[in-house]
Amino acid sequence: MSDLLEVTDENFETEIMNSDLPAIVDFWAEWCGPCKMVSPVVEELANEYKGKIKFAQVDVDKNRQTPARFGIRNIPTLILFKGGEVAQMIIGAQPKSYIEAELKKLL
Prior knowledge:
Helix content is 34%, strand content 25%. It is α/β, with parallel strands linked by helices. It has a single domain, classed as Glutaredoxin.
């Protein structure tokens, strides 16, 4: 879908929780309209913050354990992680300026 890291239930712990970099994970699904609005924004930010923040996506239809673990009820949901902890959750389609302001708090 993009150059975002595709994370699964199997590699979530390694890629996100044990990451040296802060991470943002986009929980999405193919059928989700608002997800399609958020994805290009997340991709833009991924290019702008390359090497500073890890950007990943979890397909909630293919991976059930990880969304359940974090209580994801609505998509898109972006979760920002720092040091293996949830730093912030952004639920629903938000403007780039808002997402970027939250990202800057991770750095």
